[in-house]
Amino acid sequence: MLKHSIFLRIYAGLVILVALVALFAYLLVQIINYQRAQEYRESLTDGMAYIISEGVARQSTAQQKMDWISDASDLLELPIYYVKADKVDLTRAETKRLEERKAVVRWDAKTTVAYIILSLRDDPSHLLYIKAENITERQMKALPVFVLDYLVYYPGQEKKYLEKIQHYFSYPIEIKNVQELPLDTEQIGRLRLDYSIILYRDSASVHGTTISIVSPIPSSTSEVLVVGPVPLFNWMPFQLAAGITLLSLFVLSLGVYGLLVPMQRKLRAVNFALNKMKSGDMSVRLPVDTTDELGSLASSYNNMSDHIERLIGAQRELMRAVSHELRTPVARIRFAMEMLADEDDYEYRLQQVEMIDKDIEALNTLIDEIMTYAKLEQGTPSLDFEQIVLFEVLDQVLIETEALKTGKELELNALPIHVVVDAERRYLHRVVQNLVGNAVRYCDRKVLISGGLNENGNAYVCVEDDGPGIPEEERTRIFEAFARLDDSRTRASGGYGLGLSIVSRIAYWFGGQVTIDESPSLGGARFTMTWPARRFNKMKKIISDRQQEGAE
């Protein structure tokens, strides 16, 4: 039952959807951070690339350039190679960066080694190739040395040229008075000893942890070169976290909408069908393509529509048939009353009174039949099942029928008195009474009544006659209300055409059925009603379902 629950499917869909969105968000963060990390590495090396390129360009001879590169390699403790440009395969984006005097960083995630490529301003045929396996404090403190080496060519104009090259750096580079910095005595003492110091700042802002490098300027005792603050790479900054969260919520909302759209579509179809029903159009049926609650709702609606349509049809037929059936006895009563008004003969008047009394009795019988049929057809019978000795009901009907002096031979096949079945006595008696009365009306001479338990363990009652029988093509129509055949079972034989309809509906509410075939022993019609002899849980469910269907 749970696997057909629409709510369970929605919850399971939400769990799967959340897992997929989480995986999508994780992969998206990885992709974005891969690009951010690459841009971060390039931004850290762009300024260094420009300074080193300018340092090499200032050397007048090739040997001086090689010596300068060697000194730079020792200072950075990183191998720097002077290679020909045509030996390095560059992409279009890398070539453009080198033309803009920026660095090209190639990161190998497996070995965690960065390969940095620098261009030379005065030597486009060569490149500098740096292999950086890890970045230590030594490389960080070397940066101010290269900057000061660049500024040494501009005495007295250091701040001006710092501003000029600032756009090559993604972090600030300034010359400040040492008193402006939040340094303790120990740090100031290290500066006076010509040592660079590194300042760590942990901030709760979006910038997070930053690093600043403070280096003394040889030509000044009060001013220092401050590089930074340089933000450390933040794998989950606020902007990225907020963006991924909003995007994930948006994707999740789309997924939830996708889960609810089928249910919304089906509910809209149900609403449309109900509006059609309200307007009197009973032809709309809903597709039952699922086994969940909405499929059950569609099936219930279709059953309700079929039932209402059948009730409306039955009501029209009932009204038409009732009006037709009532006219005959009413007309006879009116005619008899007119005859009484004009007749003085006492004996004749008594005959007319007897005829009127018979017509009134016929009206009472018709009304009783109509009320019983309507109650069963509307699906609201009050069934009080109990254990009944089947022989007693059959024998009672036999005695009552023989008392009518029909002149027909009635025979009850002997059945064990101990056969007990579950049934509603009043309605079971009505079934046997109607079947026997119908057989007596149409038989030639003999009626055979039997009952008991069949090979399937179901209870049954059977009534056979030696009459003309019922054609096979008419055996379904005969259970319709007010239905009569065109052969010997006609109006002349009496009845209103409701008896077999009542039998059919009682069998339905008993959880059984009525069948018609040919009597093997008498040759006429054989009516057999079967129903469960014991009301087990399955039987209770059948009755409950049918009562619910009737209530709809």
TrEMBL record:
The protein's name: histidine kinase
Matches recorded under PROSITE patterns: HAMP, HIS_KIN
Residue span, HAMP domain: 273-313
Pfam families documented for this protein: HAMP, HATPase_c, HisKA
Gene Ontology cellular-component annotations: plasma membrane
SUPFAM superfamilies according to UniProt: ATPase domain of HSP90 chaperone/DNA topoisomerase II/histidine kinase, HAMP domain-like, Homodimeric domain of signal transducing histidine kinase
Enzyme class: transferase
Catalytic activity line of the entry: ATP + protein L-histidine = ADP + protein N-phospho-L-histidine
Regions annotated as coiled coil: none
Membrane topology: Multi-pass membrane protein
GO molecular function terms attached to this record: ATP binding; phosphorelay sensor kinase activity
Keywords carried by this UniProt record: ATP-binding, Cell membrane, Kinase, Membrane, Nucleotide-binding, Phosphoprotein, Transferase, Transmembrane, Transmembrane helix
Transmembrane segments: 6-29, 238-260
Lineage, uppermost ranks: Bacteria, Pseudomonadati, Pseudomonadota, Gammaproteobacteria, Moraxellales
Record's subcellular location: Cell membrane
The keyword Cell cycle appears for this protein: no
Entry EC no(s): 2.7.13.3
The Histidine kinase domain, residue ranges: 321-535
